[in-house]
Amino acid sequence: MDGQVARDELIEALARLIARRRRDGVLRVAVDGPDAAGKTTLADELAPRIPAPATVIRAGIDSFHRPRAERLRRGGLSPEGCYHDTFDYDALRRQLLEPLGPNGDRRYRTAVFDHREDRPLDEPLRLAPPGSVLICDGVFLLRPQLRHHWDLRVLLDIDEDEIERRALERDASMMGGADVVRERYRRRYLPAQRLYRAEAAPERFADVLIDNNQPATPRVLAWPK
Asked: Which of UniProt's keywords are assigned here (predicted)?
C-alpha cells in the first residue's frame, strides 16, 4: 500500500496487517507521532476493527507520566525536559511492554500515574489472553530504549504549521488561550520533536509511515513489503 488513500481504507489495511502478524503471544503495536498528529484518534478507530478472536488492549503513554516536579524540573518550557523528563519509560517497559513481550507472563497494567491529579495509580494487574493485540499511542515511542519492544511500529507525520493549527483548535480553552498554546508549542513541544528526530530518527524504524496532514485522505509513505 502506498500513496494517498481514504481513511477507512487505511484503517482496514492496518487491521489486516495486524491480523496477519498475530501470534500465540501478544502483538505490541506502537502509534507514534508529534502532538496533535491524530495518534489517539487513529488508535481508537483501529482497535475495534481488529478481527476476532483477538482481545485488544488499548494503552497510551499519557498514563505513564512522571510526577510534575520531575517532568518540569528544567522549566515548563524546556524542550529537553519535554523529551527527557516527561514520561516514566522504565515503568512503561516493566508494567506493560515486557509482561506482554515474548518472555513475559502477560500480567500487565495500562496506567501507573494520573498526570492531571499528579498522583500514582494503583491499577490492578490484568492477564492478557494469548493472541491479544496491544495498541499503544503516544509521543516518542520509537526512542532507542523502547523501539525494540514493539512488534509493529506506526508513525504519523504532520507539518509544524498544521500541528499548531490543530493545537489552537484543540487546546486553547484547556491551556488558557491561544497565546499560551503558541508559546507552549513553539518553545517546548515542537523543539522537543526536533530533538527526538535528531536523536532517534523514528522514521527509519517505522514499519508504517503515514503523512496525516489530511486525516480524511492520509498519504502512506512506507508500508511493510
From this structure: Kinase, Transferase
H and E: helices and strands count for the chain: 9, 11
For the stretch 192-207, pLDDT in tens is 999 999 999 999 999 9
Interval 78-103: pLDDT, tens: 999 999 999 999 999 999 999 999 99
Do 149 and 98 meet the contact criterion of CB atoms below 8 Å apart?
yes
CATH assignment, 3-211: 3.40.50.300
pLDDT, tens digit, for every residue of 31-90?
Answer: 999 999 999 999 999 999 999 889 999 999 999 999 999 999 999 999 999 999 999 999
Which DSSP symbol is given to 181?
H
Residue 17: exposed, middle, or buried by beta-carbon count in 10 A (0-12, 13-18, 19+)? middle
Average pLDDT, the chain: 96
Q: What is the sign, positive or negative, of the torsion defined by CA atoms of 166, 167, 168, 170? A: positive
Per-residue DSSP letters for 36-82? TSSHHHHHHHHGGGSPTTPPEEEEEGGGGBPPHHHHTTT-TT-HHHH
Q: How far apart are CA 64 and CA 128, in angstroms?
A: 19
What's the CA gap between 97 and 106, in Å, rounded? 9
What are the cell numbers at 122?
494503583
Residue ranges of the alpha helices (H) in the chain? Answer: 7-21, 39-46, 68-71, 79-85, 89-92, 160-175, 178-184, 190-200, 202-205
